[in-house]
Amino acid sequence: MPAAEATPVERVATDAKSTGGETAKAARMVCYLCRRRFADLEHLRRHEEVSDLHRANLEKLDQETLSRRLELRQTIIGTRAALENFPTSLNHGDAATEETTEGSSLAARRQKLEWTLQQAEAALGSLQEKFEERLRSSTTTHVDHAGSVHAHAEQLKALSETGVSDGAPKLIRLGDPGMKIWLGAETWKGNKRANEDRFVLDLSLVTPGTDPPVHGVAVFDGHSGPACADYLVAHIGENISHCLAAKDTATPFEQRLQDSVHQAFVLTDDDFLAIASAEGVPDGSTALVVIMWTDSAERLKMLVAHAGDSRAVLVKGDGTKCVRLTEDHKPNREDERRWVQSKGGIVIEINGTWRVFTPETVVVGDKVLQWGLAVSRSLGDLPLKAPRTVINNHPEVKVYDLDPAVDRSVVLASDGVFDVQSDNLVASLLAPPSPLTLIRPDACALRVVRRAYELLSDDNLTAVVIHIVPQEMDTEEVNTRKRPPTDRESIASKAKRSRRTL
């Protein structure tokens, strides 16, 4: 196997040998990166952890990946420029035969450019997908970059160990009999030095008494470091539950839930800022929370709360229609600009991006900062909240009634995804092959993230996909669906795949 395609995790290869009509299977533990075989998993793991050869091969693989990635990006940029400047009509030749010949030549050249672009994008996506898989095999999602900040997040280690950032699909039943939802996620470091995005597929929300059970998911897009996003992973769910438990049950559940989520955003932010102030940590994060439940009339309800520019989109029918559920909190949004300026903040456009600044010079720890942020609402971000608060920590909270007959999926994603893709393009990537089939939600999330990378997004990339499972679809049928390939396929293979149920 070529080094560029190797994934330095254990590979269990099975050799089938027929002896006297019986099949004997021998498992081999192999590091394909170093081309070494080991007696058992323990020796393979030790090789990965301490071997100088393995470390050197990893460094070589990283350099090869980086070089190839830069080469493909240049090809994509150059080919796109050529297509943008490609002539749309003939400038010479009066004879019909000459026009036909020249036109055919132009069409062939354009088709070749389009093919080159598609191949380069697919190769770039495939290369990065393998790279991200290798990163996941060798590191955990939650890395302690903020020192003792994480000492205050007691749940963090337990959350990491129980797979809070595992994007594998989860089937959830909302009530009894209730609706079913199918969840999955994908996150990539992309072109950033580190992945500061986080997601949670189960906020472990608890509802009191006779209130309906709920299920919550979230996306947090960290910036200036991952400490705030990690803190939100550990605490925002429990804070929502605590706030809800303290409410008077005489108030309708929907109103109590809205108030509790709003209160929990502010409470979690205040708690983190107290720690950040003591530790000198400038980290911040956007927050996008979606909570679903069925009411007493068995109607499917969904609460969406967000602060920042992570976005939620509702996909309808076959993926050809969608509805944006959140409006990005950008500094150039008129109502957001007015709020920032009313607090003494400054809104300036720098290199095409609108940012919020505080007029004072900010000191965080031993650093003197002039802080500018590309969103008008966030959690954390101490430099823009002390001593002067010019960034809003209050979420926008909305409740939607969903119709399972037409509402098929909800996509939550960080801004790195939507910076380069329209809502409609993201929705189209979830389109099922037939009305009563579903593509695995983690595979859908991978398609969304990978396509954003192919379109040259320079940010971290995270997507969570929630499928609303049709009542007529059997639970076992959903659980056994296989993850489809993400590489560009030939027309023949696509046609073959469309004839079978995913």
Automatic annotation (TrEMBL):
Signal sequence annotation: none
Domain of life assignment: Eukaryota
Keyword tags: Metal-binding, Zinc, Zinc-finger
Span list, region Disordered: 1-20, 475-502
InterPro entries: PP2C, PPM-type-like_dom_sf, PPM-type_phosphatase-like_dom, Znf_C2H2_type
Residue stretches in coiled coil: none
Residue intervals of the C2H2-type domain: 29-59
Amino acid composition bias (Basic and acidic residues), ranges on this chain: 478-491
Molecular-function GO term, any one: protein serine/threonine phosphatase activity
Stored SMART domains: PP2Cc
Ranges for domain PPM-type phosphatase: 182-468
The name this protein goes by in its record: Uncharacterized protein
Species assigned in the record: Perkinsus olseni
Organismal lineage: Eukaryota, Sar, Alveolata, Perkinsozoa, Perkinsea
